[in-house]
Write a sequence for this structure.
């Protein structure tokens, strides 16, 4: 499996690598370095009365993601990152020091998408576009295996739906 995943990563490097994407995808990836873009989105939604439940759902999903991804799965699985097998490759970002599976950037991104979708917010559509590009950026930057990104999508979907469901079950006046 690892050989097939390396072939995918190498194919991306061969066919997509260019200065414009180096700049754009590094920037997009940095937006999610600690979930910043999604945390800011949740905070803005929480500040606006009309969107408070959506902000609460995104916040709840991000907290569930933090626990599941960063506290439980990454340390438990402890998967090495792909760039460690390609020392000749010049990374465009600082090498992450934590484990590879699942992709935290991808999981947080899709947690926000599915929380918004679960709340019936139309914001899920632009959030999905950003989440998909961010997920691809992790492959482009050679810091995650394709299965890490897929795992992040699945985890993000699960905690996103859970966050929306938890907030949806709260009485209306509680958010």
């Amino acid at each position: 499996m690892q050989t097939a995943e390396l072939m995918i990563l190498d194919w991306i490097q061969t066919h997509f690598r260019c200065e414009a994407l180096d700049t754009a995808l590094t920037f997009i990836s940095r937006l999610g370095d600690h979930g910043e873009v999604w945390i800011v989105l949740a905070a803005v939604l929480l500040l606006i009365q009309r969107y408070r439940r959506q902000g609460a759902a995104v916040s709840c999903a991000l907290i569930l993601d933090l626990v599941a991804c960063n506290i439980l799965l990454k340390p438990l699985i402890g998967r090495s990152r792909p760039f460690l097998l390609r020392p000749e490759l010049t990374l465009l970002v600082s090498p992450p020091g934590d484990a590879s599976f699942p992709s935290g950037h991808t999981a947080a991104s899709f947690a926000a998408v599915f929380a918004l979708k679960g709340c019936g917010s139309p914001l899920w559509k632009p959030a999905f576009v950003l989440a998909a590009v961010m997920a691809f950026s992790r492959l482009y930057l050679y810091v995650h295996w394709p299965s890490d990104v897929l795992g992040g999508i699945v985890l993000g979907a699960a905690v996103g739906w859970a966050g929306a469901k938890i907030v949806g079950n709260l009485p209306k006046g509680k958010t």
User: Anything to note?
Assistant: The mean pLDDT is 95. The chain is about 70% helix and 0% strand. Residues 3 and 40 are 38 Å apart (CA to CA). The helical segments are 2-16, 19-31, 36-47, 52-77, 104-118, 124-140, 146-168.
